[in-house]
Amino acid sequence: MLFRKEILDNIAKGKVTLAFRRWTKPTVKAGGSLRTAAGVLSIDTIEAIEAGDISMADAYCAGFPTCDALFAELGSRSEGTLYRIAFHRSGDDPRLSLRDEETLGQADRDAIAARLTRFDKAAGQIWAEATLQLIASRDGITAAEIAEKVGMEKLKLKARIRKLKELGLTESLAVGYRLSPRGRSFLGQA
User: Fold this and answer.
1) With contact defined as beta carbons under 8 Å apart, do 16 and 10 qualify?
2) Residue 11, domain CATH
3) Is it the case that residue 8 has pLDDT exceeding 70?
4) Which residues pair with residue 172 across a beta bridge?
5) Total number of domains in the chain
6) Which residues contact 174 (CB under 8 A, 6 or more apart)?
7) DSSP conformation letters of 87-149
8) Domain boundary residue among 92, 119, 146?
9) What pLDDT was estimated at residue 112?
10) DSSP 8-state assignment for residue 80
11) DSSP H/E element including 9
């Protein structure tokens, strides 16, 4: 579930607690969580509704000044069921503190190395550490540049870089990637 920046800002402030989406199949479930740039969201409820069930108060809680403004955004996707998703911000993204770890012990290094080996094995090709090395070569290196150098389709590579981000090793920039302090430490660049 993606949010525009101004909505994310208001989620972080606690002002936005609802979202409305048209989906053929929901991508979140009640009791689950979702990591966003505004932090981790706990999904309280998700229910199928009709557009006429949306009140002015609902539109406001979703970050829109009027129902018409909300409907204009929903109008960009006409297929699927309309869902009302209630959530609350439950904390910061745990990857943020993980990636700021500048000092890794041997056990941490071994655990990361083992995960990278499993990533390579699952993919049937060696890519993980090579990708980290390329990201280390220049802040802002793009997925297209990395994909060309490791011989992989760009979208597949981006999905794999998300695995490195889950380990706290990389950070996404407005354009491209860079190593996190944890990633630099793992590669011995701290």
Assistant:
1) yes
2) 2.30.130.30
3) yes
4) 177
5) 2
6) none
7) EEEEE--HHHHHHT-----HHHHHHHHHHHHHHHHHHTS--HHHHHHHHHH-TTB-HHHHHHH
8) 92
9) 95
10) S
11) helix 5-12
Are the beta carbons of 141 and 189 closer than 8 angstroms? no
Position 95 pLDDT exceeds 80: no
- Which region, left, alpha or beta, applies to residue 80 given φ > 0 means left and ψ of -120 to 50 means alpha? left
The pLDDT mean for the chain works out to: 92
Packed helices 154-166 and 106-123: angle between N→C axes, nearest 10 degrees: 160
Q: Rounded to an integer, what distance in angstroms lies between the CA atom of residue 20 and that of residue 38?
A: 17
Q: Tell me: pLDDT of 47 over 80.
A: yes
Structure tokens at 7: 């909505």
Residue 53, both tokens: 């069930």
pLDDT classification of 190: cutoffs 50, 70, 90: low
82 touches 74 (CB < 8 A): yes
DSSP string, 20-57: EEEESS-S--TT-EEEETTEEEEEEEEEE--GGG--HH
What CATH number did the domain enclosing 147 receive? 1.10.10.10
Rounded CA-CA distance 107/171 in Å is 23
DSSP code, position 174: S
Range of the domain at 151: 96-186
Enter the pTM of the model. Answer: 0.64
Helix (H) or strand (E) holding 63: none
